[in-house]
Design brief:
- The complex is a heterodimer of chains A (259) and B (364).
- By secondary structure, chain A is of the alpha/beta class.
- Chain A is built from eleven helices and ten strands.
- In chain A, helix 5 crosses helix 7.
- The N and C termini of chain A lie far apart (43 Å).
- The model of chain A has no long low-confidence stretch (mean pLDDT 90).
- Chain B has a two-stranded antiparallel sheet with strand order 1-2.
- The longest helix of chain B has 38 residues.
- Chain B starts with 7 loop residues before the first helix and ends in a 5-residue tail after the last helix.
- The N terminus of chain B is likely disordered.
- The chains are: A alpha/beta (259), B mainly alpha (364).
- At the A-B interface, helix 2 and helix 7 of A face helix 10 and helix 11 of B.
């Protein structure tokens, strides 16, 4: 279960301000695509347009089109709620629901949508999702304990389990490791390479080693200066981006040299 | 590493120790000052508790300031004096509270029996003997209080919570509607309660004509006072819910309304419940608006839509202000009602704490 993403000439606006300009790219199913670039260049903003989460921010609008397996996300009549059930998202800071136990957190996507699920199906889903997130062995004895009591890395994997429990086609990750220590980061990276077999994954990261470790393709975004829109500079195979980039700006960025 | 010890002279003058007063100096000095001041006042035959306490505080602060200034230096002296001032302010703030509670409990306990809570009381006029007898009892006021505040809570809690949800979740900061509502809520928070009573009474006078006394109109008056409190406290609690939780829920494909109900309100539930119960506790003691809108009576009336209704604060006021023939008995009624009211408020606060604890997010 995974789908391709096709983006055509996408512009993102915050009210009148053009934040991201003219992005086009094709993302293959069952791949990991990494977005890299300096802070404020619009990577996260662009990522959020892939499941219409940008609409949560007042005044954010989009021009252009995004096709998930040929279906336009921005066609009239498309319900953002249904889009988000297809395209899940993991955030920068782990955000388990503090009022829920570990088990309830995993089932949140099902339960909050008022879908009825039998107790045995629920247990199966919890186990499958937690195994999928490499968390099952650590928490199987305390599923009824609060999710907020786990460590930061475990909480982030809990959030991933919660996301894959609603069986999306695509999983978006917005700097999922930036609040975690190296060991937890390693656990998440391992997980990403496993999840690739089932989902299309798009990940925003500030860590270029991480991009080169986990991703098949890499997109480099940059910004000409404050107040200017962010642009997609180069999008290619990860190996090509890190060894033989076509653009000077990409080479400067990935080699740690600027200006 | 050697930046500080630029010259041998300054290096040798740097020490890490300073003079210290013993740890027990503050309480001992306070007690000592109190004893000395009491002795001097007794000798001069000027003893008076208020003068004694004030002079003790003044002399204690002078003594600790000068003493610490000499032994420990300026910084610690200031620290000790300010700490003394803070304790004085605390005692000043708490003293009237404890005094009031003490008086109410001491006077109220004389009349507070189980019968006082479960029997209708007041002055009873016997037409045969023309005698007015006073029987202790506050059931009519207990029932009235519960009915009137209950109706007020049932009306204002949903309105208040929904208004707060609108203000925090739906209205943009630039929305003119939101500014108007926020402004009106601020104004309503400061409305004198007597105005709310007059409003409710005149409203019902227009609807049902003169003599519009009823428990329901008193409930409306309490709503006017309660809604802004509920809106304010709920708003604060909802704002404390991290935005990340809303995003997490929305990203799972949960519709906005469900997100608000099951994530935002659920996470804030503990604080919202506390705010609501404290708002109820705040209006349960209102006297003026109920006195105007529901009047007062010694008769048992459990129908909020017709006739005067008694409540505990109004009973305390009327028994004291308009005593029957047996003034002592009326005043005892007033004290009993006051104590009962305090107990009701304490019960509300306890419920608030228990419920808040039950709803609070846990981490272990």
């Amino acid at each position: 279960m995974s789908k391709s993403i096709e983006v055509n000439d996408l512009n993102v606006y915050y009210s009148d301000f053009l934040a991201v300009e003219g992005v086009s790219m094709n993302i293959e199913p069952r791949t990991v695509t990494a977005f890299i670039g300096p802070s404020g260049c619009g990577k996260s903003t662009f990522l959020r347009t892939l499941n219409r989460m940008h609409e949560v921010i007042p005044g954010a609008t989009v021009k252009g089109s995004v096709y998930i397996d040929g279906e336009d996300l921005y066609a009239p009549g498309v319900d953002p709620v249904l889009v988000r059930r297809q395209v899940g998202m993991v955030f920068q800071r782990p955000n388990p629901f503090p009022t829920m136990s570990i088990k309830e957190n995993v089932l949140a996507g099902v339960r909050l949508n008022n879908r009825r699920i039998s107790a045995s199906d629920a247990n199966d889903l919890v186990e499958k999702s937690l195994r999928g997130a490499n968390l099952w062995n650590e928490v199987k004895d305390r599923l009824d304990k609060p999710g907020a009591g786990l460590s930061g890395g475990q909480q982030q994997r809990l959030c991933i389990a919660r996301t894959i429990a609603v069986s999306p086609q695509v999983v978006l990750m917005d700097e999922p490791c930036s609040a975690l220590d190296p060991i937890s980061t390693f656990a998440i990276e391992e997980l990403i390479t496993e999840l690739k077999n089932e989902f299309t994954i798009v990940i925003v990261t500030h860590n270029m080693q991480q991009a080169s470790r986990v991703s098949d393709k890499t997109a480099f975004f940059n910004i000409a200066g404050t107040g200017k829109p962010g642009k997609l500079i180069e999008y290619s195979d990860t190996a090509a981006i890190f060894t033989s980039p076509k653009e000077q700006a990409t080479e400067d960025y990935v080699s740690g040299r600027f200006g | 590493m050697t930046a500080v010890t630029s010259s041998p002279a300054t290096a040798s003058s740097i020490t890490l120790t300073s003079g210290q007063l013993p740890r027990w100096i503050e309480p001992v000095l306070a007690v000592g000052t109190a004893a000395v001041v009491a002795a001097v006042l007794l000798v001069l035959q000027l003893f008076n508790p208020a003068v004694w306490l004030v002079l003790t505080a003044v002399f204690y602060l002078l003594a600790i300031g000068i003493g610490a200034g000499i032994v420990e230096g300026r910084r610690k002296a200031v620290d000790r004096v300010v700490r003394g001032l803070v304790v004085c302010a605390f005692i000043l703030a708490v003293a009237p509270l404890i005094s009031t509670l003490w008086t109410v409990v001491a006077q109220g306990l004389k009349v507070l029996t189980w019968d006082f809570v479960t029997k209708v009381g007041g002055s009873v006029f016997d037409p045969n003997t023309l005698a007015v007898t006073n029987t202790p009892g506050a059931l009519q006021a207990v029932v009235g209080t519960l009915i009137i505040t209950g109706i007020a809570a049932v009306i204002s809690v949903p309105i208040g919570i929904l208004a707060a949800v609108y203000l925090t979740e739906y209205a943009q900061p630039s929305n003119p509607m939101r500014r108007v509502i926020t402004f009106l809520v601020d104004v309503m928070t400061g409305i004198p309660s007597i105005v709310a009573g007059l409003f409710a009474f005149s409203l019902f006078a227009l609807i049902v004509g003169p003599k519009a006394f009823s428990g329901f109109s008193a409930s409306i008056a309490l709503c006017v006072l309660m809604i802004p409190i509920v809106i304010r406290s709920t708003e604060e609690m909802i704002r404390l819910v991290p935005n990340e939780l809303r995003e997490a829920s929305l990203a799972l494909g949960v519709p906005r309304a469900t997100t608000i109900i099951k994530v935002v309100l659920r996470t804030a539930a503990s604080g919202i419940v506390t705010g609501v119960v404290l708002a109820v506790a705040r209006v349960v003691g209102e006297t003026a608006p109920i006195f105007i809108a529901a009047s007062f009576t010694d008769n048992f009336n459990a129908d909020p839509f017709s006739g005067p209704m008694q409540t505990l604060p109004v009973m305390a006021y009327t028994s004291w202000a308009f005593p029957g023939k047996d003034i002592e008995a009326s005043q005892a009624q007033a004290w009993g009602a006051a104590l009962l009211l305090v107990i009701v408020v304490v019960i509300f606060n306890l419920i608030a704490r228990i419920v808040a604890k039950a709803f609070a997010p846990k981490s272990r």
